[in-house]
Specification:
By secondary structure, the protein is mainly α. It is about 85% helix and about 0% strand.
């Protein structure tokens, strides 16, 4: 009889123990979902900023041909784009988004390199539409923008 008595407290605590384990598992799952949502929001925001900058740079490039004063604004926009690209590298993706993040990082690194090279070309040769078109920056921005759909698929939408 004494043996049953010793087991009884364990049996009465078992539901509490199971409930605690379930609660901790649920908290971990919620944290994982929050991390995924935060990453998707940050990555989508970055893609939208790059897309907007790309549109503005294209217009500035056309305008700079006839107005050399726009070149300074163009360089400022390039600096902003490069800063955003460098900031994006600091994001930690959730496990579910690692493949998409790797694609983004690859395009991102190419973008940073292309912007740096174009800024050197600007300093050496000044602005020409031909030099801008040869940078590949507009194509890289389009590639980055196309990843937005893949991010939406990760989120189930």
């Amino acid at each position: 009889m004494k043996r049953l008595w010793n087991r009884r407290p364990l049996l009465t605590r078992l539901p509490t123990l199971l409930l605690s384990v379930f609660f901790l598992s649920a908290c971990a799952a919620i944290e994982s979902v929050n991390q995924s949502l935060n990453y998707m929001n940050d990555a989508t925001g970055y893609i939208e900023q790059v897309s907007t900058a790309g549109t503005e740079l294209q217009q500035m490039a056309r305008d700079a041909v006839n107005n050399p004063d726009i070149t300074a604004q163009f360089q400022d926009k390039l600096d902003q784009l490069q800063t955003k690209a460098n900031e994006f590298k600091q994001l930690d993706p959730p496990a579910i988004g690692e493949a998409v993040h790797e694609k983004l990082l690859s395009y991102n690194e190419q973008l940073i390199t292309s912007v740096t090279q174009f800024k050197e070309t600007l300093a050496a040769q000044g602005f020409t539409l031909e030099n801008w078109e040869q940078t590949g920056i507009p194509s890289l921005i389009e590639n980055i923008n196309n990843i937005k759909q893949q991010l939406g698929e990760l989120g189930g939408g």
